[in-house]
Amino acid sequence: MASTTTPTSLVILFTLILLCVTNQAREPFACDPKDGPTKTLPFCMVSMPIAERVRDLVGRMTLQEKVSLLANSAAPVPRLGIKGYEWWSEALHGVSNVGPGTKFGGDFPRATSFPQVITTVASFNASLWEAIGRVVSDEARAMYNGGVAGLTYWSPNVNILRDPRWGRGQETPGEDPLVAGKYAASYVRGLQGNDGDRLKIAACCKHFTAYDLDNWNGVDRFHFNAKVSKQDIEDTFDVPFRMCVKEGKVASVMCSYNQVNGIPTCADPNLLQKTVRGQWRLNGYIVSDCDSVGVFYDNQHYTSTPQEAAADAIKAGLDLDCGPFLRIHTEMAVKTGLLSEVDINGPLVNTLTVQMRLGMFDGEPSSHPFGNLGSKDVCTPVHQELALEAARQGVVLLKNLGPSLPLSYNRRLTIAVIGPNSNATITMIGNYAGVACGYTTPLQGIGRYAKTIYQPGCADVACIGDQLFSGAIDAARQADATVLIMGLDQSIEAEFRDRSGLLLPGQQQDLVSMVAAASRGPTILVLMSGGPIDISFAKNDPRIKAIVWAGYPGQAGGAAVADILFGTTNPGGKLPMTWYPQDYLTNLPMTAMDMRSSPLKGYPGRTYRFYKGPVVYPFGHGMGYSNFVHTIASAPTMVAVPLDGHHHGLNNTTFAGKAIKVTHAKCNKLTIGVEVDVRNIGSKDGSHTLLVYSTPPARHWAPHKQLVFFEKVLVKAGTEQRVGFNINVCRDLSVVDTFGIRRIPLGDHSLHIGDIMHSVSVQALPLGVIKN
Ligand SMILES: *[C@@H]1O[C@H](CO)[C@@H](O)[C@H](O)[C@H]1NC(C)=O
Ligand SMILES: *[C@@H]1O[C@H](CO)[C@@H](O)[C@H](O)[C@H]1NC(C)=O
Ligand SMILES: *[C@@H]1O[C@H](CO)[C@@H](O)[C@H](O)[C@H]1NC(C)=O
Ligand SMILES: *[C@@H]1O[C@H](CO)[C@@H](O)[C@H](O)[C@H]1NC(C)=O
C-alpha cells in the first residue's frame, strides 16, 4: 500500500510541487512543526500568553545568544530552532527597497508606490492615511510570505518640519504637531492592523527626537547637539511621538543620531525609559538609528570606551541596535560589570514580544491570518487606484487667476508641456521608495486630454544654462496653453542634503518667466518638491495664471496632475507647511531650534504657530474649483473649568487673568461641543478641509494660533454638510509655560473656524462654587 502511488496522491504531490514553485513559501522562522525537539518547547505554545512564552525563551538563552540578538541582523539560535532575522525594512509610502530586510525581484519585482508623505498629508484626510497603511501592510505581508521582506518596518518618519531647508522634510507630515500626530496614529493603525495585541506588521515612529537637520553649513546630524527648551519639547517635538505611541499603539520607536541638550538621544534614560516607555507606555521595542550607538561613541566621543557606550544605551532603554555595535561590545560590558545579564533581558523581552505578536513563533507562516497573501496581492488594480486617489487628494492648487483652471479639454487643443519634471518617473516617488508598479508621467497624463508638444527647457532640475530655452519658448508660442512642470528632485533635497536656500534651482525661474511672456495661451506652473519653494515671482506675475504644487505625487502622479488641470478632479489639498520667502532665512541658522520668536534678538520664530512675518503661501492654503462657506450651528460662549480639591480656599476672583495648571483641573469630559455647517456654493462637488484653530488670550509663551481640529468632508454642489466636533479644554486650549507645564489661560479664547471667529470665555470654577 505504502509503495503504490494512487492517482489522488500524485495530484496532491504535483500540486504541492507547483505551490512550491509558484509561491516560494517562507520557511517557519521558529517553532517549525517539522523540527521535533524544539516545536514542543513552551515558547512555541500558541495557546500560552505571550509574556510567558517570552519568559520561557529568554530563560533558555546564554549570554552570548542574547547579545547576538541585539543587532538588526539578529543571529540564528539553531539550538532553539530559531533562524536569523533582519529587522530593518522600510515602508514610508509603499514597501521600500531601502534597508537590507527587503529585496525586490523574483515573484515580487514591484510594489505600489504611494505619494511621498508630505503630499499624502496635504489631503488632510485621516481615513486615506489609514487606508494607505492597510494596502502597504498587505503588500509587506505578501512579500514576507514570499521570503523577500521582513515584518518590522522603520516607518513612518514623524519629525516636525521645523526648518524649510531640511532635505527630509518630504518624508514628514509637515509642521503642525496635531496633523503630524494624527498622521502617525492613522498610518500606524493601517500598517499594524486592528487585531488586539496581534500585529500585521510592526511600524516604527522615528526619529526621537528634535531631529530635523541633516547636513547644513558644516554641521551634520552625527555631531549636532539640538538645544531644545522644555516648552518646545512639550508642545512641539513630543506631540507626534506621544500620539503615535498612545493613539497609534506603535510597536517601535527609533531614537535619533543627534544629541538633545548634550545627551545622545539613544543614551538618554529620560527620553527612552522615562518618557517613551514610562509615561507613554510603549508596548514594543526601541531601536537606534543606523549605527547611532557607534556614532555617539566614535563621532561624539560621548563615552571613553565602547563598553560604556553599550552600557549607556541599554541602561537608557535601547532594545535593538541598527548596526553591529551592541553585538560587538555588550558582552564585555557585562564581563566588566558595567551591565548585568539581567539588564540584557529587558531588551530581549521587548524585541521577542514583538516577534511573537507578529506570529513569528507560531510555526507555519501559511497558517497566519495573513499567511495567504502572495504576489497576486501586490500592485493590484485596487492598490494602484488608491495611489492615484491619494495623489489627486494631495495636490494643492495655490493660485488660479481668472479662473484659468480647469482647462477645457478637447482633442483639438495643443498643450505645450515644458520643464525638467515634465516626464518625471522616479522623481515622483521621492526617497524611501521601492520599485513602483509603473508610472504615469505628467506628460502622459496630459496626453490623455489633449495633444502635447514636449520641451524639457532645462536638461535637469539643476537647470544650468539656457541652451534649451528657445525650443521651449517656440512651443509656448504655438500652443493653446502652456504647462510648465518644474521644481526639485533628490539631487536638490534628500537625506544628508539640506537646501541652502528656497528659490528654484539654477535658471528655472528665468525659463518660467520667459515662457510665460511668450506663451500664446494661459501659462500654468506645476511644482514638484518636498520642501516649500519661494516662487513669489510666479505668484506676482499676472501672466502665470495658475500654480499647482504636486509634492512628489507617487507612481500615478502625472495622471492626478492632469485630472486636476482638466477638472475631472476638484482639488482639495492644503499646504501642510508654511511657504516662506527666501529672506526668512537671513540670519536664521538651521541649528537654532527655538520655535518661538524673539523680537529682541531678531529671531523670527518657526511655523505658522510662532512666525508672524510675510509668507509666500501660508500653512493650510489650498484652493479648489468650488467655494465653501461656514456657518456656526451651535457653539458655547462660556466654559467653566472645575478645579480639583487642592483649591478649596480659592475663589473665582483669585484666578482672574491667570493660567491654571492642567493638573489642577478636572479634565474628564471637559469639552466644548461645536457644530458647523459647510456649504458648497460652487457648481462642482468637492472635498473641503475644515480647519479649526484656537488663539489663546495673549501670553508671551502662547502660539499665535494652534490647529485644534481638522476634518475633510465631501460636499456636493449647492448642498451643505454639518460637522460636529468636541474641543477638549485641557488638551486643546492649554498652552505650555517655560517649565514645560501645560496651563489653561483663563479669559477669551478665539476659535477660527474657516473664516469665522468665535470667542469662548474660559473661567475657573473653584470646587466650593460647584452646586450639586
Ligand atoms: C517619457 O517617459 C516615458 C517613461 O519613462 C518614456 O517611455 C517616454 O519615451 C518619454 N517620452 C518622451 C517624449 O521623452
Ligand atoms: C477671594 O479670595 C481672596 C483670597 O483668598 C479673598 O481675599 C477675597 O475676599 C475672596 N473674594 C470673594 C468674593 O470671596
Ligand atoms: C468668574 O469671574 C468672571 C470675571 O472674572 C465672571 O465673569 C464669571 O461670571 C465668574 N464665574 C463664576 C462661575 O462665578
Ligand atoms: C478620504 O479618503 C478616502 C479614501 O480614499 C475616500 O474614500 C474619502 O472620500 C475621502 N474623504 C473625503 C472627504 O474626500
From TrEMBL:
SMART domains (UniProt xref): Fn3_like (SM01217)
Cross-referenced InterPro entries: BXL (IPR044993), Fn3-like (IPR026891), GH (IPR017853), Glyco_hydro_3_C (IPR002772), Glyco_hydro_3_C_sf (IPR036881), Glyco_hydro_3_N (IPR001764), Glyco_hydro_3_N_sf (IPR036962), Ig-like_fold (IPR013783)
Gene Ontology molecular function, alphabetical: alpha-L-arabinofuranosidase activity; xylan 1,4-beta-xylosidase activity
Single biological process term from Gene Ontology: xylan catabolic process
Subcellular location: Secreted
GO CC, any one term: extracellular region
Domain of life: Eukaryota
Gene3D superfamilies linked: Glycoside hydrolase family 3 C-terminal domain, Glycoside hydrolase, family 3, N-terminal domain, Immunoglobulins
Record domain Fibronectin type III-like: where: 688-756
Keywords associated with the record: Glycoprotein, Glycosidase, Hydrolase, Secreted, Signal
Segment forming the signal sequence: 1-25
Protein name: Glyco_hydro_3 domain-containing protein/Glyco_hydro_3_C domain-containing protein/Fn3-like domain-containing protein
